[in-house]
Amino acid sequence: MTVAVRVIPCLDVDAGRVVKGVNFENLRDAGDPVELAAAYDAAGADELTFLDVSASSGDRATMYDVVARTAEQVFIPLTVGGGVRTPEDVDRLLRAGADKVGINTAAIARPEVIADIAERFGNQVLVLSADVAAGRDTASGWEVTTHGGQKRPTGLDAVEWCARAAELGAGEILLNSIDSDGMRQGFDLDLIAAVRAVVNVPLIASGGAGAAAHFPPAVDAGADAVLAASIFHFGDVAISEVKHELTAAGHPVR
Amino acid sequence: MTKPTVALFDYGSGNLRSAFRALERAGADVTLTSDLAAARAADGLFVPGVGAYAACMEGVLKSGVDAVVRERAASGAPVLGVCVGEQILFEEGVEHGVQTRGVGVLEGRVELLDAPRVPHMGWNTVAADQGMALFAGIDPSERFYFVHSYAAKAKPEGARVATAVHGEPFIAAVERGPISACQFHPEKSGDAGYALLTNWIKDL
Fold it and tell me: Which residues form a coiled coil (chain A) (predicted)?
């Protein structure tokens, strides 16, 4: 009778299409986010995340349509992030059918937006997405960066920032290690433990998964959920294998 | 055979698209409405709700659906409340020290969960009392999707309840006469949620 560790595939969506190769069998259209979402649901995903990478190019209407079609066909929780700046953006995504909304750069520029969104919609809808890299000039040794993989420094201590975001009203933290991302050497366990020590909201670990065996240590370090993209998309590791490893390590799964 | 009608009541709260489709998939003829006559006339009334208790109650009172819920409770017409739509069926909610009166068709108050991790977010198991219609045929090992920080903790008199544990035991679902309610989101709970909604709809 404890809440299960959530296993969350993340899809990058650009102008209504999934980007980065997806290698799934039996798909009519591997570029259709709705069909992929359904495939991941069938494969046992506990939740889905769409990252709108086209957000800044202004193609928002397409994303609302993708979210709406997904919500009508896939009956597990859906988080949408990318380009979210204001409570109005959140409102539109929730109305389209998102359950939670991720916010990143806009919250760094204006932390009060976290409180604005939490007050209006409840903190359970708001996922603070932190892209973290090693930073020599911060107390913890980790720094928040913006603009995804471009690692634009902010000077913000990543651990302090996560604690502050939770205080302001973020209901969940998506902790993405930019340095580990794509390396397939496992999650940054020290980073997970450091953030876990300062927040009591749920923590999603992201960045670095390369094998099913990489997932249980992230949970041992303090993650409540685990997120990955390419290893699932390429079919290298199945969600069922991750759940098998988690179960073997004594963690509850659905 | 005609399908049972369900009024999905829109008082300005959150994502209703999933609920609409999930109810439809589970066999209901669904109408999304903020019309009180439609809420009275439907075979089943679905009361959604996300966000803060006080904000939801404000929307409920403004819409006037509180009176319809009480009428239906008195006349034996089915109501299903989900998430904050479950919580507001109780007598009161306390969030951030603010007490808000609920619709009050179930006795008890909704309070902060005493747990190391809040919100309670994710898939959890529930232990249902014998004979609950919502859980008929659903394996006790099934998990449902929760996302909330507050919950009712005491069993209303004469009700059947399902309890879940997150830090402490709380009411995950409740049934008494025509009133049914779930703290979790059946419309987001995959096959288990589909089974539960089907159970509610087939009895309408």
Answer: none
Instruction: Report the alpha-carbon angle B51-B57-B61, nearest 5.
Output: 145
A35 at interface of B, judged by CB pairs closer than 8 A: no
Where are the domains positioned within chain B?
Answer: 5-202
> Is A131 among the residues known to form the active site?
yes
ipTM entry: 0.94
Total domains in chain A come to 1
Specify the pLDDT at position A59.
Answer: 67
What backbone torsions phi and psi does residue A88 show, to the nearest 5 degrees? Answer: -65, -40
pTM of the predicted model as reported, rounded to 2 decimal places = 0.96
Query: What CATH number is given to the structural domain containing A216?
Result: 3.20.20.70
Of A52, A89, A131, A224, the active-site residue reads A131
**Lowest-pLDDT range, A170-184, A216-230, B3-17, B189-203?**
B3-17
For residue A26, count other CB atoms closer than 10 A to its CB: 7
- Burial call B50-89: b when 16+ CB within 10 Å, e when fewer: bbbbbbbbebbeebebbebbeebbeeebbbbbbbbbbbbb
Domain span at residue A212? 6-248
For B5-202, CATH number? 3.40.50.880
DSSP 8-state code for residue A139: S
The burial of B43, by beta-carbon neighbours within 10 Å (0-12 exposed, 13-18 middle, 19 or more buried), is given as: middle
From chain B, the residues in CB contact with A121 under 8 A are 14, 50-51
